[in-house]
Design a protein that fits this description.
Layout: E1 3-5, E2 12-14, E3 24-26, E4 33-38, E5 46-50, E6 60-64, E7 71-75, E8 83-85, E9 92-97, E10 102-105
Antiparallel strand pairs: 1-2, 3-4, 4-5, 6-7, 8-9, 9-10
Length: 131
């Protein structure tokens, strides 16, 4: 299987090994549509021609982990306050800004009074027996 860089975002797009002249492809990252045009009939050289001039928003965006500096790939539809976990160092992070994308360490939120997690033992009321 062969791959070519998208003419818009340079994401490696898999195109297969049996490409035909004029075949269309869509970049899975930025949704740009492009066509492969062979230079001549005798060679395997080709050029990429962008068809759509207005690519849609990217589906994947990247940001660096503040703990280990590993690149974290996130869905482009992230929102502020969304929890994120670094798959490399397992740091618990939170999206603090969307434009530009920024993550920081998540601040643990204390549970409200008289609220318990399922794993915690629930309080029981003691009843005095009436005799």
């Amino acid at each position: 299987m062969m791959g070519v860089p998208c003419p818009e975002c340079e994401f490696l797009v898999k195109i297969g090994s049996r490409v035909q002249d004029g075949q269309r492809f869509v970049c899975p990252n930025c949704r740009t549509t492009f066509v492969i045009k062979f230079v001549d009939d005798e060679s395997d050289d080709f050029e990429l021609i962008r068809v759509s001039n207005h690519p849609k928003k990217r589906l994947v965006i990247e940001v660096g982990c503040p703990e280990c500096e590993t690149t974290i790939r996130l869905n482009a539809n992230v929102r502020e306050g969304q929890p994120v976990t670094c798959q490399h160092c397992l740091a618990e992070l939170e999206v603090v800004s969307v434009d530009p994308l920024e993550v920081d360490f998540a601040i643990p939120v204390p549970l409200k009074k008289n609220r318990y997690r399922k794993a915690d033992k629930l309080p029981t009321k003691s009843r005095k027996s009436r005799g």
